[in-house]
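Project channel, design review

CF: Before we commit to the Halobaculum saliterrae constructs, I'd like one complete example in the thread so the newer folks can see what an input/output pair looks like. Taking Phenylalanine--tRNA ligase alpha subunit.
RD: sounds good, go ahead.
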Amino acid sequence: MRLPQAQVALLEAASATDARPIEQLADQTDLKPEAATRAAFDLRDEGLVAVEERVEESARLTDEGETYRDEGLPEVRLFRAAREAGGTVGMGEAVGAAGLEGPEVDIALANYARKGYGVVNSGEVSADADADPDADTEAAALAALATGDAVDDDDVLDRLESRGLVELDERTVRSVALTDEGVTALMEGVEAAETVDRLTPELLTSGEWKDVEFAEYNVEADAPAVEGGREHVLRGMSERVKDVLVGMGFQEMDGPHADADFWINDCLFMPQDHPARTHWDRFALDVPPVADLPEALVDRVEDAHRDGVGEDGDGYHSPWSEDFARAIALRGHTTSLSMRYLSGYADADLEPPQRYFSVQKAYRNDTLDATHLLEFYQIEGWVMAEDLSVRDLMGTFEEFYRQFGIEEIRFKPHYNPYTEPSFELFGEHPETGEEIEIGNSGMFRDEVLEPLGIDCDVMAWGLALERLAMLTTGAEDIRDLHGTLADLEFLRNAEVTY
Ligand SMILES: N[C@@H](Cc1ccccc1)C(=O)O
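CF: and here is what came back for Phenylalanine--tRNA ligase alpha subunit:
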């Protein structure tokens, strides 16, 4: 009988009386575990071996588990301390005597009554006279695992896992034994056939491919999972957003992440004493200020801040300093780019109608939580045209979000110093049903447009890419998506659906 080399090796290494794990056979034959597994399945299909599968569970102590193995479980220590002190003792005293520190106190309390050690009531711990800490099954399991002994009680293992004291792991172990047919084949003699498992350039150029025997593919063979690189959810999302906006007739803007406050705030009629411009909300950079700003525009912006625009315009009556306008900070929104483009400072077409967008990072000194990071990607955009109305703004968002399967968006009136009217946008989270804010928008005011020299309407917005990703992937915490705490398992499997 002729068989591929790997199968011959495996067949010869296998035994009829002793089922051997594939890893062991792989060692014996110098085959890679995947190759040995494949050969075993092929031999099984030919009836020459039997493959037996079994799930093996292993349990390993975590660092915390090891600490408690050495020092005793917190609840056990609390019990011993209370018993030694006579059975009922003040909480503080018992904790001190047990040497419990920090979170150990809560851990002891959370497990004390559950395990029948006694009760904790109005600041006193009592030790149950019948309880026996030497019979603590969790402590015994920790000790057994530490010395490499198996623990059979699944309930105890599960509880230790949920307490973070052990890590459980499951793997499939396959063992191979010769069948009668396999033994017969070996007695009659098997020899290795030269089989080829891939077509190489050499085989093609030499013409050898005509004579060789190709190994068959076994698509059912168990292969180790390979975690290759993949596109990050946010990158996929950002590319998709760009495609959609380009499809809607928008051109892309680009510009600096660290910029003069002039572009980030002053052009937007943000008073210099606005809370968002104070030092604790701003990531100010300790670098020399921007020297190059369009002087005439700086003057017009200063005038708008001091006196407002138009006949009966009114300014802020608060100080305005050109030095402050030139100071550099990380942009808190990408509306700085819209200002650069709308002013003509960046190279933009400004003959209406025009549409521009960007998908870039913005930086804010926010408090981290499930929907806020210190940086996020903002989908900035504006449309410049004669006679725009709020309906145009809403229609644009409806069309945009529909491309991502989001049919229901809600608009809430809002206030921005630079737009009037202004609207916040909300979408519903697919998993939690919660309304989450997904963007902010409005029609630029005359105080913004006049200094820029624009005399038609401009509607504009800043939408959060991460929030859109939360709606489309179902992620419930933005920190799962990026940053050092990102959930790799989620990112490996998340699909960007639209
Ligand atoms: N800059 C606003 C978004 C916005 C841009 C343009 C107009 C209106 C609102 C924000 O970051 O929330």
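RD: helpful, thanks. Residues 333, 335, 416, 419, 440-442, 460-462 surround phenylalanine (CB under 6 Å).
CF: The chain has three domains: 2-57+171-214, 61-155, 235-493.
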